[in-house]
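Handout, section B. The chain below has 216 residues.
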Amino acid sequence: MNNIAKIRFGIEIEAELPESIDVNKLIDRNITLKGWELIHDASLKNGIEVKPIIKNKLFYNDNSLLQIQEVLTLLKFYRGKANSHSEGFHIHIDAKNFTNKQILNILYQFMKQQNDIIKLFKIPSLRLKNMCQPIRKKELNELTEQELNKFRKGNTYRNLSNILDNKYCLINICHLNIADYQTIEFKCFNNTLNFKKIKKNILWTLNFVKDSLERE
């Protein structure tokens, strides 16, 4: 795979709104772009999350970037703010067509680079402790292609590889267990409503995945 434009992805944009705005009424009205949805975010005091209705519908192209800009404009219209210390910006990569070996390659490359990634994206210690825990080498080494394959087919038993059960990792693979979803979630980015930063984060993620797949 030598073209990031062939990789499908999805994003989750979170924003805290002023107390004067009734989030539930805003969600009921569903004032957003066609193909996107507003949902309540329980981790926020008075916040919402915006994401594509069809999971991982986006390709990296002008149309998708324009949609993201329009979503950000909507959030800013309602005076939305991003808390970069406690909340993150998440990017989901469609992994339905990735082999088990390719997924493991992505995880191993991430683990090798994760200390540099933490520094690069200046992840706060609070998020590292709670919501974005680094991958543990021992747990990843225990994850075999066979075990990953069983997990992707819906096996939900507890196993030695806690990375399959822990959604609070810097790179979350718990969604691989959901047949119609199958994503790898990158959680290493601080929350932002800045389009240039979001675009940069998406590009970094797509290039990281592309480079990891090419190491197979």
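Note. The chain has two domains: 4-88, 95-186+194-214. Compare this with the example in section A.
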